[in-house]
Each structure stands twice: as structure tokens, then as C-alpha cells.
Amino acid sequence: MAAADEFYNKWKGDDAVTEHIQPTSPGLTDSSNGSRSTMNVMKAAYMEDTVRFKFESTAGCLQLYEEVAKRFKLQIGEFQLKYLDDEVEWVMLVKDLDLQVCLEILDFVGGRTVKFLVRDVPCVIGSSGSSNCYLTGSS
């Protein structure tokens, strides 16, 4: 819990926390291709780095992990994502349903930005040389 408090306090003065809590219009609409799809702003922090990007609300958890992996030059399975919820707690994002709940909370509070914490996953190497690492799935 101390790590969550540390990250919350780090971002507390950041305008993105204000964006997450204050009522606003949820998401952005992209109508450039004729269809109306909702884009959400995602903000992810890994170690000392932070990235911000738009993410299609209809995309799944695996696509989000892929985008974060690409931006931080990580491999899927080396990290896990946690999002900051409406009760200012870090909640693990493991499958599509978790992402759906995350976006529903964002809509409910009227926020514009979802904040993510990117955590390295410790990899345990067994005596046979095989590893037992956390792997994500899309559902």
C-alpha cells in the first residue's frame, strides 16, 4: 500500500489527477473516418517515465498491454498494469472485464484520463531452468 500512496502523492500535484476526479465530458470522439468511436486518454508511469496516449474504448486489455509495452520497450509478461480507481486505490488490470470496469468508473466520475502504474513482475526461475512468470491474456 505504501507504493500506491507514493505514486498517488507523486501525481497528486499533476493536472491529470484533477482531470480524473473533476466532472468533464467522458472521452473524446473521433469522427474522421465517419464512425463515432470513443477515445480515452491513458497516462502510464513506469519507473521515472510517464507517457500519455489516446486509446480506443472498444479495444481490449491485450491491446492496452501491447501499447504500453511498445511505449516503454517492454515485453508482454514482464509487467502488469494497475489503474487508479474512483476510491484512489490501485487495481490490477488483467482481462477485458477489468478494462471495461475501469472505463465505466471513468465515465461514472466524468473523468478524461485513466492513470496506470506499470509494475515489473518478478520472474521466479525454477531448478529446471523453467520460469514461472506472470502472463496476460485477452479475456
TrEMBL record:
GO terms for molecular function: DNA-binding transcription factor activity. Pfam families: PB1 (PF00564). It comes from the Eukaryota. Coiled coil: none annotated. Residues 40-121 form the PB1 domain. InterPro entries: NLP, PB1-like, PB1_dom. SMART domains: PB1. Gene3D superfamilies: Phosphatidylinositol 3-kinase Catalytic Subunit, Chain A, domain 1. This is NLP9-like. The lineage of its organism: Eukaryota, Viridiplantae, Streptophyta, Embryophyta, Tracheophyta.
